[in-house]
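Subject: 4-hydroxy-tetrahydrodipicolinate reductase

B.,
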Amino acid sequence: MTINVGVLGARGRMGATVVNAVEGASDMKLVAALDAGDDFAPLADAQVVVDFTHPDAVMDNLKYLVEHDIHAVVGTTAFSEERLATLRSWLEPKPSLGVLIAPNFALGAVLAMRFAAQAAKFYASAEVIELHHNRKADAPSGTAAHTARMIAAARAEAGVTPGPDATTSELDGARGAAVEGVHVHSVRLPGLVAHEEILFGGEGETLTIRHDSLDRTSFMPGVLFGVRTVLTRPGLTVGLENVLDL
Ligand SMILES: NC(=O)C1=CN([C@@H]2O[C@H](COP(=O)(O)OP(=O)(O)OC[C@H]3O[C@@H](n4cnc5c(N)ncnc54)[C@H](OP(=O)(O)O)[C@@H]3O)[C@@H](O)[C@H]2O)C=CC1
Ligand SMILES: O=C(O)C1=N[C@H](C(=O)O)C[C@H](O)C1
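Prediction pasted inline below.
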């Protein structure tokens, strides 16, 4: 079976890479490659649309896709619990429609998050550092926020209370942003692509888990897997770890 795929954000850094990947996939056909300001009419031919646009645009795009019964694979970041709840309400009357949102489609990043969740119950102290290119629109990264939430959930399940921290900040932001009790630090530099370190500290030891995306092709196997998977996975799925056999 050939899957008809549309891409939103097609002229962007990720969208252009997705266009190439879809064109190179023998089981997919690219039917629309659209960007900001384009007419969405060509999406009528798409079974699945991949969205790598902008946090300010993605909810309107998803509303359009759900209204038109088109499955969606979403890499665009900055999904709050409120946004996810809105999306679930849109999907409720569409029981066969699937939306897959993944803050990171790179296999290594998904594994790093899983390892971090595993480690979280053994270490009361954890910090996340994400490092990205300086054209990135949002901070913290979607991956860092998701990682922090996974650590928080693993701690809650294991009954681990976040470790002591005696520091008083002299300057706002010196300790980063707290996402569900986990400090997250964002670095922006030209030359970087997408990188994350998760640091754990315990009695006389530290554990560092690090992932580096050195090229945007690192995200493509996950995106193509998402396109193939979303057709048979109705409802909202958040995180590639929930569809991969890890
Ligand atoms: N989940 C993952 O694995 C990954 C996620 N990302 C995320 O993907 C998103 C895009 O990143 P990146 O490609 O670097 O960003 P870019 O800015 O390079 O690309 C975004 C593109 O989307 C276009 N766009 C904006 N609004 C719309 C709209 N309403 N409809 C269609 N196209 C639109 C932009 O056009 P214009 O410039 O004219 O506004 C631009 O061409 C970010 O949220 C980023 O964090 C990135 C890498 C991996
Ligand atoms: O903007 C990017 O580049 C990336 N965005 C995603 C995020 O915010 O986590 C995924 C990856 O880190 C690259």
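The first helix runs from residue 13 to 23.

T.
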